[in-house]
Amino acid sequence: MVHQILLVAGGASLLFALLFLGLYRNQLQRERAATSLQINRLLRVALENAMLKRDVPGLRDIVRKMGEQPGIVGVMILAPDGEVRFASRPENLGQKLPALLGDGDPGLPETRFVAEAGQTEVLRSINPVPNQTPCTVCHGPLAGHPVNGVLVVDYDAGTLRLEAYRSAALFAAAGIAVLGLTLWSVWRLLRRRVIDPLARLDLAANALAAGNLAVRAPIELADEPGRLAASFNRMAVRLAEQIRRSEGQQAYLQALLDGLPDGVRVIRQSDFRIVAVNAAYCRQLGIGAEDALGRFCYRSSHCRDTPCARTMVVCPVVELDEVGQSVKYRHRHRAADGREVPVEVHAVRLASQDGEGDLIIESIIDLSQAIRHSQEQRLSELGLLAAGIAHEIHNPLGSMRLAVDGLLRGLRNGNDDPPRMAGYLDMMSHEIDRCTGVTKRLLLLSRLPQQQAQVVALNPAVADTVSLLDFDAASRGITQTLALDLAGPRVLADDSDLRMLVLNLVQNAHHAMPQGGRLTVRTLASGERAIIEVVDDGPGMAADTLGRIFDPFYSRRADGEAGTGLGLTICKSIVERYAGAIEVHSVVGEGSTFRITLALVSG
Asked: Quick one: 49 and 121 in the same domain?
């Protein structure tokens, strides 16, 4: 910037010097011409007197003395035809110089710079000598011969040029000095008020660009650079705040993703690269987040070096053409240790905010874990029946033990009373039937669901399941009542699923009445629908709780115990599997009613 200012200033100074030199030279030329005209007028008068007197020697002497004057190079008197009649330099005598007469008015004087071949440049003054009445005798009438001759005086132009150059040099030197002083002052002012503050601002901007969010530009004066520095500092504060807020939001979003039980990964559709994952996804594949981020999706989950063949598997990156589209499919991912992980993927395409291509969001459910959790839930619920089952079997076994002891004593004592022995055996047969019924109900509850739905009678499934919980109800002070529809409604479902449904609902009712209470389980047929109702007189539930009881892992038990939060979720899943509906009505302080509606099988 400074070099450019100096270059422009120097060029301007040189241009002004050349312009001044030309103007000054023209001014000197005009002044010298005016002076020479005055001198020439005096000389012309002297020459005219000499010519009138026909004093030729005197005329030659005047011309010679004029040529010897300082600053005069030569003097000539030309005849009207251009012949040199008198000259201060003898070699010019007799020469024909018509060009010196000029092309203008022969009666007007003229002054110009002339540079002839082999000679130095001169300032030539050409002065016509007009014809006068006394001269008409020799030169003819005035009308035909207006000029008797031409006086030519050549002045040395070197002196004029030297004087012009000297003046121009002095002017240029003075201008350069003034300009240098001005530039030095401007430079000091610019450096102190503009350049140095801008340099410090540039350093602060570079530091901010390098990631130093704490950097600030110094503010010295309340001028334009100072206001610019203040604006920069405000921008830096806002930028730091926005970055901190963005990092906080990113950390919060990552925490939300890590809190999800299912695996989540985000894929950029333009290049198949993973841009975000959660902890569950990393656990599914046994990898760290750093091993997934930035890698190709097919490399991370399928251990492939090229994209998956779209004819072999469902690829959401290829299948989803528009924002908002979704697809659900099943894959087999490969973990880091080589094992295959069966997964169910729900993918959706979202618009990107960074302009680098849309995103594919995948929610990945580990089916092996889902199966294990479902089975663990069944085993957990069955484990809660252990005490009741033990009680149900223990009493018949105790009775049979007494009967066996009586029979053994009779046989040992020789008392083989047949009626008495028959009574013992009848009692033992009855108790064996009781034990068989308990184990049968338990087996029906614990077996895995069938692939296809079957016609199931509601009353036996409900009665058997509730009877398994008689001991648990008695231990809690709960009175259980069955109200079964005599019509014996039947539904299209799975017997094991229905028993698990009733088991979960009855157990939830027990949990809701830790201080005891009444529980009613009823079945009924209404039109084309079969209905199961489980009614308790527990504390009831508030409206905000009712809206979440079917959410996975949400548990708010009235007895204060920590539940799995999956019981009602499983109930809803079972009901919806058979195109049914589950509703709940609850009033705080009055109890709750769960109502399951299924399609009734007629005939």
From this structure: yes
